[in-house]
Specification:
The protein contains 16 helices and eight strands. With about 290 residues, the chain is of the alpha/beta class. It has one domain: 3-Layer(aba) Sandwich (Rossmann fold), CATH 3.40.50. The protein has an eight-stranded mixed sheet, with helices on both faces. Helix 2 crosses helix 3 and helix 7 packs antiparallel against helix 11. The chain starts with 5 loop residues before the first strand and ends with a helix. This is Haloacetate dehalogenase. It holds the Pfam family Abhydrolase_1. It comes from Kribbella pratensis.
Amino acid sequence: MFEDFTLEQFDVDGQRLRVRYGGRGPAVVLLHGHPRTHTTWYAVAPELAAAGFTVVCPDLRGYGQSGKPVTDAGHTPYSKRAMARDIVGLMDALGHERFAVTGHDRGSYVAYRTALDHPDRVSKLVVMDSVPAVEALERCGAEFAAAWWHWWFFAQQEKPAERVICADPDTWYEAWTKNSPQALGPDNHADFLAAIRNPATVHAMLEDYRAGLTIDRHNDEVDRAAGRRIECPTLALWSTDDDMEQLYGDVVDVWRPWCREVDGYGIKSTHHIAERNPQDLVRALRTFL
């Protein structure tokens, strides 16, 4: 995977990040979702590098082989604000003053928080398979609760989900069925497997969700009340074979109050677009970026 890319560990303000980067040209950061690592971009990143971009793919804080800070009662170490600071610090270390950010699933929350908190640094934003956290929670009905019940399960702490997942992570994460080596690619699958089998990673990934229901929602509410918006051009993409359109109708309409300039459309794929339809995703990113 990632021929001609460099794999390094960076210390960003005391936070260890595993990062793969390569290419030359304008910088774009690719942020993975749950329960993936940066290797989910294995079919996308080299194509973007060949198209004239510097491509930076970190494991998010808590995921893969990046650091897993001790949490607190407010889950603040796993807030998207903290993760966004990681991304800015990483790009400082790599020497990029301005950069685009693309995020999928949980990574999209980090991506839009980076754009909101650091508007002078982010040139363009791509969010995939998501709406702002507070919008998802306020629009939650029976259909969302039935399909995305794991949000509430992950949030429980008196009967922690970690015990259930770590008892059989391969089965929980469908590692040999839906998320098989054939579906993910063998090297990407091996990295995914190592992550989900690490109890510390499982705990950190669930802390990401716990932050989403608490501090991340609060930060979104504060920004919305203050009238803060994403200043850079934004592209919303979603998997047409997932449930984004069924849940939200016009996904771009949900993003419009949050962005100065936003457009978007669906891509024929199931949820993990980078793995299931990298060709159309690369075309979309090249055109927008």
